[in-house]
Fold these 4 entries.
Entry 1:
Amino acid sequence: MALRKVDEQRWEQVVAGERDVVQIDACPVCNGAWFDAGELDLLAGEATQIERALDPESRPSKRMCPRGCALMREHDLPGIIRTPVDHCPVCRGIWLDGHERRKLAKSTTREGQEDPKKRLARRGAIWAAQLLVQLPVEVENPVHRTPWVVITILAVLLSAFGLQLLGVIDLSNCAPGVAGMPSGAMLGDLADGASVRDLCLAPVAASLAQQWATMGAAALTQGSWYTLATHWFLHGGWAHVLGNCYFLYIFGDNVETLFGRLRFALFFVAAAIVGGLAEVLLTQNTAAPIVGASGGIAGVMAAYLWCFPRNKLFQVVLFIQLKLPAWVYLFVWAGFQAVMGLVETRNVGVAWFSHLFGFAFGAAVTPLILAMRRREVARTVRVPA
């Protein structure tokens, strides 16, 4: 990243190779940055002298110097921030994690490069919109490549909802019939002349339970258990589909960038299936079709919590716009799902258990995926000698 000074308080990003610029190495995933000796003081202002403010006492760090010198040392910055920073005693470079960088070198972030008046106007517009929709807004976590899987899933969700509006996909096919069986055709009936318009594509807990009781293990291939893999692209209304699309976009683009496209797609579908299965097994509203991508999106939110816990979200509470760390918002959200799943047990219109178990699946699987990603990076990245 190449930066050029605009005035005493601001730097702007420019094309690498221009004259009179400072170049720093920034991670596009975690927003962390590496500062060679003297660069951090130059960006923060010579009067700050952050490098001289490092506490002489240090502790061993688990992070290797990007220049390959040795393991770095953790130093406190008393009176400036509470978290330690990593300092190389050989080349005297400093590594800042994303949250540390925003505090000490905010001018190197997209938000910090904006004109203060434009930033204030943008916050005002966000506040006005949030008063109406009460949705969180991601503050600073840009991605540097197109999230094609997220865009594809959004297109699938909106296209499927369009087919619902046109009557091509009919949820009434999944209304429970005699003895709890679905009134619509099942997948095996296509060979007997049934059309896609006649299919039941959403699971109904009573129907699946009846099929299992009467057909046993054969219900997995001859019944409508396939609906656990199709219910996630169906929705109950405009607010349902647009809300799910919004949450998928603000959290999914970052997770897809970190996981990789194929791994993210499999992760999303698996979380959706786990969430749908949990709702089928635990809901008391057994006669209503279960629809929505909420289980998969909840899994993505859990992955975001693991990967970017300190990234900030705007949320309006009682007309006040708060800037919350992602971990605060997502922990509150998960707790709300758990409480509502236990309290609202009759005439349920929301798949609380799908949300909760999709989130739990994401929280359990994400550390495994991150370990895989670390091994992949270790095989491809070479530290300079």
Note: The chain is about 45% helix and 15% strand.
Entry 2:
Amino acid sequence: MPEHGDLVFPQAEFDTRVANLRKLMAARGLDAVIMSMPHDLFYLSGYQTPGYYWFQVIVVPLDKEPFMVTRLLESSNIPARTWIKHSRPYADFTDPTRVLADALIEWGLDKGRIGLDMNAYFFRKHEQEGLISKLPNAKFANCTGIVEELRVVKSDLEIEKMELAAKTTEAGMMAGIKAAGPGVSENDIAAEIYHAMLKAGSEWPAMAPFVATGWRGAVGHMTWERRVTNAQDYVFLEVAGCYNRYHAPMMRTVTIGKTPQEIKDGEKVCLEAMQATMEAIKPGVPACDIDKIARDIIKKGAPHVEQAARTAYSIGIGFPPDWGEGHILSMVDAHDRPLEKNMTFHLIPWVQVPGFGGVGITESIVVTESGCRSLFDFPKEVFQA
């Protein structure tokens, strides 16, 4: 078992998370849950590895010790980085669902009601079917979202991690802005972002920074591919530093040479939408109401532009392929869940300007008792190189 300092959080934080999960399990009549998303494994135990493309799960029984089933190579992460006492690793040439089934039998769960995250990226259909076929006396239920329900509201300790991530984001973003200029390649800008972000303390982020210049800034999720900027050009940047797997994303826009009026108009409406949404965000307000505020302002203030996406998405723990938690909660028309204190979001009322691309001036925010606050202390503007 690791020394106290090797855990990302104090043991009491993990104990609270598992206890809260067990309350949800009891309410659903589950004797155990099997979780396979790397975010959920990290949230419940502290376990992390980039090797999650191999089968790995944590099993949390209602009233017995949790255990993990991972690839043998990855199992060394369990005593090194988690509080979990029991591991049942599998060799590369074995069927991991056989090992998992045997462990469930060992724990006396083979006749119980077991929750599976059936929407998980990393628990494939044939693996789920293989496990179910090996435990004919067990009953399986879809428990997708059971851990995400806990993750969407952060503890104070989690927000401290995100504040540390935000400092690394700021360092990377400022380096990218300073690197932008005529005759500079996207690779040069990306290199400066990474150098500054990592020097400031970031770990490997869940997604690469987005660095798109010129026409490439109008293409969704475009990032560096060696393009060299022109004397009158446009640079779109989106950066998220990472601290103990927690992320804090930010978008900013840079123009090289004179800023076109269309970009200035986009900047104005983005800032108006940002101010209005931050003033409106507070506990009890439905997420969809914030989305409507942003869309109405953008539609009225700049009818020739288009809001490029949702107004905000939940953020926190990130593993590839995403630094966001938008599948848990996003500020869009369809999500009417009321906001709660300590929810955290990437607030992104950004726009696509025809002929130019995206204008992004965004914030990572935390909902407070009476409103919200940004995790950043960074200028909100379109920069000029």
Note: The domain at 156-384 is CATH 3.90.230.10 (Creatine Amidinohydrolase).
Entry 3:
Amino acid sequence: MNDTPRSLLFWGGSAPMDLGRDVGTRLLRQAAARKVGTQVTVEFPDVPELAALAGALHRTEVEDPAAAAAWARGRQFDVVLGVREQVQVALAEVARAVGAPGNPPEAVRTVRDKDRCRQALREAGLPQPEFRLCADLAEARAFLEGTAGPWIVKPRDASGSLGVRKVTAPGELADAVAALPARTEFIVEQFVEGPEYSVEGVFLRGEPRVLAVTEKKLLPPPNFVEAGHVLPADLPTGLRQEFEQAVTGALKALELRFGVFHVELWSTADGPVLGEVHVRNGGDWIHLMLEHAIPGLDLFGLVIDDALGSDTGAYELTPSRAAAVRFLAPPPGRVSRVAGWDEVLRHPAVLKADLTVRPGDVVGEIRESYDRAGYLVVGADTPRQAAELAERLAAAVRFETEAETEEAGA
């Protein structure tokens, strides 16, 4: 038995909202359960729960790869993990600098830039929609003229559905480009018809291992914000295997080999078409649903065990029950009353729930994940039961809103 103290660096911490706190504290607790000492690097204001659980807290630049590598040189850690999308390239550089297992930084750069990832997948022989990296509105118009619509406009490097808009006619393009979060290069691509899913998994001994497929439910276009998820998706065995083969083939082609992965895809008449690839856990409480659906699973603990060379063969990694999440989307206006929420909280199947708006708050169009008004996560025996329960409870929450006058809005 190896009694040498082991150490983990949690790079970049986690976001201070409820979801981020849950992910970060879960990771640190799972490390502590394995008697692994932890340190955390942060840049924005502390999440107090992380400071309480970690052995040390460092303030430093966490998103810049060169600065991150400079900070890490000369330090030693057995495991380096991170959960925020924006830190993944820096995280890979840190792992390399301290000699810990990790993904090649260049591979992570590829998946962080959506156009580079699309091109790499296409070169690997995997179906991809036509796309173009555009610097301005004129280049985007030229792409629309040469391709069949509808189309999607999205940032080159963002998350949380920020700035993603559907364009059904050329006349809608200017508004979609104006809605992007920054006037830098952006992507225009053909819209892919078909239901959306994501594939969740981990790398064990450098090989991708799928844990579950998640069904995604979206709010109506033009924005593409998730309304909810069901895990595992209720799929025929053959279709699930198609998804797994496409995703594991893509991860290998992209030369990824460590940590947690979350890969989005569409199911089309011609087979799966891969979307975005992430070397982190899925958002929207997918980590919680995954650990509920696979009893006994420690998602981050599994990665830690693998990094430390522990035997992971004894783990049961197949879902035996199900979970679902639904997000709340009240009509626009000033919220005057919320009814039914207390009844939702008392339901024994609710795993996690929170409201992010209160009476007096003004809600508008939901354009990104942070605009949603709350969520509820439920567990059940089957995917269908979980989905139906989540829908029923979400429908029981009633938001009463009043139209905003121009004076009140000001």
Note: The chain has four domains: 6-100, 113-122+192-320, 130-190, 321-410.
Entry 4:
Amino acid sequence: MAVTESAVVPVEAPGEGESEGARDTGAGAAERARAAHEGILRRQSARESAARTYARALPIVPVRARGLTIEGADGRRYLDCLSGAGTLALGHNHPVVLEAVRKVLDSGAPLHVLDLATPVKDAFTTELFRTLPPRFAERARIQFCGPAGTDAVEAAFKLVRAATGRSGMLAFTGAYHGMTAGALEASGGATDVRVARLPYPQDYRCPFGVGGDHGAELAARWTESLLDDPKSGVPLPAGMILEPVQGEGGVIPAPDTWTRRMREITRARSVPLIVDEVQTGVGRTGAFWAVEHSGITPDVMVLSKAIGGSLPLAVVVYRDDLDVWRPGAHAGTFRGNQLAMAAGTATLAYVREHGLAERAATVGARMLERLRPLAAEFDCVGDVRGRGLMIGIELVDPEGPPHPAPDGPRPAAPELAAAVQRECLRRGLIVELGGRRSSVVRLLPPLTISDEQTSAVLDRLADAVSAVSATARGDRRHERDGEQGADGPR
């Protein structure tokens, strides 16, 4: 497939030694831009924490952005399919978001108000409730939390523990709910015994080795057995938290039938069901909220990322009879972010009024249709999957032993996934990695992506996979030739 080259443009800043108002052109400006870019990256490496993540794999310095496009300090332009880890439903600097923020700034309204009522907050809550599943919204209460999704997860755990008087939680293998202590306990890498881990159904790497409806049914039966067996070691929990699509876990959509079973199992045992819609919400999966695919009504929804219209905002929305908190039982200094609420209201309304959830379903299906043949064309592509505009491509070692059966999936290949990410960046495409072993290339484009941009993303990604596959084949051939030796096979 053809590669669309990244444009190179001069950075609009006078270079060192220029007279006021003067500007270098051509090679001189480009060289200064590259020097500025490299200097900023060097200073970041010297000053920032070793815990930094995206900056390691994406050595770019964004200076301007609009929609799907980011421009770096070195003048290169990129198509951004990371979208702030799914935060930018409308892409960068959408006009309706900028207008909403400017309106608040120009009004003289206070920007910091704790949890006081304001017209901006009232408008946000009204629009949010308008988008929620009707049966859920009619009995809903909202708690504004600290600015990140993990804060809302912590609040949800405190809520159900207070409401039930129980302490344990149920979560799922491969889950990701945030980086604070309680959220980490419920995420896939934790080992704390206060959270019981349950199998999350998937087709490609089914924990029971069968996949499909049968695998999902076995996962549901496992959950029932754990809760009903008095010797399981798992007492009745305060709640269950699940993601309708595991994002960081490798873009794994939960089967709708299984999600309905989880709702039945929890309701029958008076266990509140918490649905984490931090990444799946606001049209991302092809429905405004991912729970709408299965038709369930959860007890609690955790919301963040896109609801703030690119600015930090997180809330918990829950059934009114769970609202047993005493005043001050959960708080946070920055839970009244007026600019985020204004940007969020504009984003929610735009997605709703312009049918962007439905468009995400259509464009996502088209992208999957184009990408799935890669698994047949390249032996390093194990699986292509997704829902709406959450798409994942799992890279595997084509010569590794299949597991658990001879026709099972090959071992994950994180080094190949990282190579695809690098090749994408060379072609002006920003993608994320995820999955159990960081072997899944993830696409999270804004819901406003155009048809032309969609084709460009697919072309660049396919070219990157092709380049990595060719290199890997050449490396394997070189290794085999080396093993032959001068006197034939060893």
Note: The chain has two domains: 26-86+356-478, 95-353.
